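2024-03-11 09:14:02 INFO queue: dequeued item 2-ketoarginine methyltransferase, len=349
2024-03-11 09:14:02 INFO validating residues
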Amino acid sequence: MPERAHVSTIDTATFEDGLIEAIEPIRQFALATAIFHLFEAGIYDRIDDAPSSVAELASALGHDRAKLQGLLSYLRNEELVTLDDGEVALTRRGRALAKYRAWYTMLIGGYGQTFMAIGDHLGVGSGGAARDIVHVGVGSCGISRHDAFPLTQELIDKMRRKPEVVCDLGCGNGMYLVEFCRYFPGLRAVGIEPSEASCAAARDFIAEAGFSDRIEIVCNSAVEFVADPKATKPDLYVLGFVLHEILGQEGERGVIDFLSKIRAENRGAHVVVIEVSDQIDEAKQMQHGLARAYYNPYYLLHYFTNQKLETHEYWMSVFARSGFEVLARATTSAEVDSTGFELGYLLRA
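2024-03-11 09:14:37 INFO prediction written
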């Protein structure tokens, strides 16, 4: 159900009441940043295993004790940790954050600098703002475990014959590839990722999971890999949040050329496409709780990072003009994401 519209009390309250309401976003900005660092600095994992003294925690992680104390005191005041006689532990609310860690990795670690650079990139010809591609990839893969990967599984299950070789174009940290290999015994997979740092992270993740013998990581762009006649020819290409990158950087012609190249080079292959439908101007739909909490900032950052989201109708037109038949389409489980904004397509050349 859509949330009720918030009625501001800024104009009718005392100055202090109005101030508290007006600067609440500043509190949330600082809190989101602190939570990201709680995870990223290794603190969360340490105290998730068992409570620790601040002194022991600082020594184990190589942190300045006074600065660590300040961060933990702040988090105590936000009721995420407890501090009793110098011992720090997670609260129930703090423990509940673990399953949502990937959203902080992507939106704060990956795109935090993007949000801060918006003002510098409003001007004509100012180009795209920077992002941390490794954190974007790792965070995106973590989020996908809950939404995009189950969606991909649902679409693959509609194929008449299960794939033997899968190629993930834009594989991030390799999570998709590991999940594929777990889901399909005997499957071989190849991941394509343009960032060498992301490739290194993917190889480490895959090795830790024990799938290095079944998964290959190639440092290359999706466009160049598909155009390489010597490249692996899979049964299934997976394009998770890839087409909107190509659209933003090379335009519609670039997307159609890319898909057409897949069709020409591997006519028997299937393609799974996962994209987010652009709903930023749909005022009613954007009042949904998850639309406001996640998709609104997600839509915003795409205007400043040379990425271009589009609608379902647009993608259906592009698939047809690229020579693909849409065999099936689906959206996320309502238990995870009831907006219906994330879309999945199973294509066949």
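2024-03-11 09:14:37 INFO annotate: Strands lie at 52-53, 81-84, 87-90, 165-169, 188-193, 215-219, 236-240, 270-276, 325-331, 342-348.
2024-03-11 09:14:38 INFO item closed
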